[in-house]
Amino acid sequence: MKSITRQKPFDEVKEHLSSFDRPFIVGCGTCTTMTRTGGLEQVVEMKDRLQGLNKRVSGWTVIPTACDEMAETAMKENRRALDDANCILAMTCALGVYRLGSYINHPVIPALDTLFIGVEDSPGHFHEVCMQCGQCILGETAGICPMTACHKGLVNGPCGGTNNGKCEVDKEKDCAWTLIYQRLKDQGRLELMRRYQPPRNFQAVPRPRIIKV
Ligand code: SF4
Ligand code: SF4
């Protein structure tokens, strides 16, 4: 399971850094290395591009996991270079941006967009299976999440546009509700297709979502 990110267009990064001339760049050795959005290679490439804009990059590091307490250790280890920096450019997912921001006063600028939590089904191919809604209905949908897999997020599907097993929104993509139907049929549980799912109750786990274990 990985936090899936995409690099922001360089012009956007440039814009966010317009008032900062001494960035310190942070990458992550876990998710953004896997997705090649903020690993060693991409961090060095970013450093070179920023230096090409006459930014004085005060330093850079790739934290083994930027979303946990290793971020604090890395901040301490790089204290001198960080003192010389006036911002951090985070090539991490949003969890890493949050972590870095909780350990240091410098502005932390994300260089990536965080898209979703994904599983890798074949090398380099990630897809989303859950959007953490807090009211799981996978038991009634044969293990396929309609909120995540259906383009319209329908919990009572299919819509009228499903066509030969493909989705009307994206004809390359399988219709989630056709997949659910087929799997329920294989399991001899087709009656579940008729079960009405009430609208999601957003009070079930109010935001921000917090839990103490
Ligand atoms: S219903 Fe879908 S989004 Fe909600 S918890 Fe289950 S898998 Fe996740
Ligand atoms: S065609 Fe299927 S996947 Fe696409 S929006 Fe309709 S129900 Fe959802």
Topology summary:
Elements: E1 2-7, H1 10-16, E2 23-28, H2 31-34, H3 40-52, E3 59-63, H4 70-77, H5 79-84, E4 87-91, H6 94-103, E5 108-110, E6 112-122, E7 125-128, H7 146-149, H8 176-186
Parallel strand pairs: 2-3, 2-4, 4-5
Antiparallel strand pairs: 1-6, 6-7
Characterize the structure shown.
By secondary structure, the protein is of the alpha/beta class. It folds into 2 domains: 2-116, Response regulator (Rossmann fold, 3-Layer(aba) Sandwich); 129-194, no CATH class. It has helices at residues 10-16, 31-34, 40-52, 70-77, 79-84, 94-103, 146-149, 176-186; strands at residues 2-7, 23-28, 59-63, 87-91, 108-110, 112-122, 125-128. Strands 3-2-4-5 form a 4-stranded parallel beta sheet, with helices on both faces. Strands 1-6-7 form a 3-stranded antiparallel beta sheet. The model has no long low-confidence stretch (mean pLDDT 95). Residues 150-152, 154, 157-159, 161-162, 167-169, 175-177 line the site of one iron/sulfur cluster (SF4).
Beta strands, count: 7
Number of structural domains: 2
Helix percentage range: 25-40%
Which superfamily, in CATH terms, is the homologous superfamily of the largest domain? Response regulator
Bound molecule types: iron/sulfur cluster
Shape: elongated
**Gap from first CA to last CA:** 21 Å
In the CATH hierarchy, the architecture of the largest domain is 3-Layer(aba) Sandwich
The H/E string reads EHEHHEHHEHEEEHH
- Alpha plus pi helix count: 8
Within the CATH hierarchy, at the fold level, what is the topology of the largest domain?
Answer: Rossmann fold
CATH class (first level) name of the largest domain? Alpha Beta
Strand content: 15-25%
Unreliable spans are: none
Strand order of the largest sheet: 3-2-4-5
Structural class: alpha/beta
Mean pLDDT: 95
Radius of gyration, in Å, reads 21 Å
